Amino acid sequence: MFRAECKAGTVLGKTACAILSRGGLVSDDIVNQIVAGRIAQPDCASGFLLDGYPRTVPQAAFLDELLAKRALPKPAVIHLDVPSEVLVARISARRQCPVCGHIYNLLSQPPKTAERCDADGAALTCREDDTEAVIRQRLEAYEKLTGPVIDYYRSGAYFRVDGNRPPQEISREIAALLAPGPPWGESARAADQELAGAR
User: Fold this and answer.
1) Low-confidence winner among 51-60, 112-121, 184-193 (lowest mean pLDDT)
2) How many helices (H) and strands (E) does the chain have?
3) Where do the H-state alpha helices sit in 9-160?
4) Which residues of 126-142 are buried (b: 16+ CB within 10 A; e: fewer)?
5) pLDDT single digits (tens) 108-119
6) Considering only CA atoms, which of 111, 115, 114, 133 is closest in space to residue 123?
7) Strand partners, 104
8) Nearest-angstrom CA–CA distance, 101 and 129
9) Sign of the Cα pseudo-torsion (128, 129, 135, 141, in order)
10) What is the DSSP letter of 93?
C-alpha cells in the first residue's frame, strides 16, 4: 500500500516511502490513513488481508473502530513467528525486476539466470529497505512495538504460527485454523495451543 501511494505521488505515499528507505517505521496516523483509504475500496467489501498491520496498539484500536463502523467482525490474527536471523537472510536475498516488477528471492525463488529477470532479462535490483542494516533497524523497532499488540489480540482470534518452515506447511496450518466451522472460537484456539505445544 505504501509503494502504491508513493507511485501515485500522494503526499502520504512520499512521506511513508522516505521513512521506510531510512529503516524507520511510519507513524500511526499516516499508516491508519493509508489503510482506511485502501480498505474503503470496493474490492475489500467482502473482506481483506492486512500484512504487517496493525503494528502498534493504537493502530489495533483504530482498526477495531474502523471495522465496527463498517459492521465487520474483529480480525482473525495470524502471527507468523520467525527468528530474526532467518528474516534478515530472507529479506536481504529479495530482488525485484525494475521493468515488470516481478519479485525473486535468491534463496527460495531464484531467477533461472543469476540476477536477471526470467521474463525480460533485466538486471534485478535490491530495494533500499532490503539491505541488512536497514532490515535490522526495522526488526529492532518492530520487536519493541509488537509485544503489546500480541497481548492486545491474545483474547480473540489470535493464532501463532511457526513461520520457519516450508511455505506449503505454513499454508496448510493457516487454512486449517481458519477453516469454516466454529468461527475462530474455542476449538480454533485449542488447535493453536496444540500445534504450538507440539513444536
Assistant:
1) 184-193
2) 8, 4
3) 11-21, 28-39, 57-69, 84-92, 132-153
4) eeebbeeebbebbbeee
5) 899 999 999 999
6) 115
7) 95
8) 16
9) positive
10) T
